[in-house]
Design goal:
By secondary structure, the chain is mostly beta strands. The strands form 2 sheets. Strands 2, 4, 5, 6, 9, 10 and 11 form a 7-stranded mixed sheet that branches. It has a 4-stranded antiparallel sheet with strand order 1-3-8-7, with no helix packed on it.
Length: about 130
């Protein structure tokens, strides 16, 4: 099994920065091919933000966050990070860490939220004025 715990969210003024962390545990984590971050607002569809190939290092970013968000990992600590810069009000959402080995597509960024097997509880990001 895999357990994911997000942290690092909070309330930040527009233009500020946050760094989200996702601590992973469980004996299956080392077999997960794809890692990523999704976000979701109440009543809306879950939106892919960024993905990372755990072994390959290949990354994917949604157009809305390119140039502002960076996904990375510390494999020795089983931790995934999302550095968020130049925060906008539209970035205010619940952010979820995810992991899996989706079979739909070989490239992690071509898979949707339903293709990932494990999710954390989420961490709230709020952008204030």
């Amino acid at each position: 099994q895999v357990q994911l715990v997000e942290s690092g969210g909070g309330s930040v003024q527009a233009g500020g920065s946050l760094k989200l962390s996702c601590a992973a545990s469980g004996y299956l984590y080392s077999s997960m091919r794809c890692l990523g971050w999704f976000r979701q607002a109440p009543g809306k569809e879950r939106e892919g933000v960024a993905t990372l190939g755990r072994r390959s290092g290949n990354t994917y970013y949604a157009d809305s966050v390119k140039g502002r968000f960076t996904i990375s990992q510390d494999s020795a600590k089983n931790t995934v990070y999302l550095q968020i810069n130049s925060l906008k009000h539209q970035d205010s959402d619940m952010y979820y860490c995810e992991a899996g080995s989706p079979a739909r597509a070989a490239y992690c960024g071509d898979n949707g939220p339903a293709d990932f097997s494990y999710w954390g509880q989420g961490t709230q990001v709020t952008v204030s004025s």
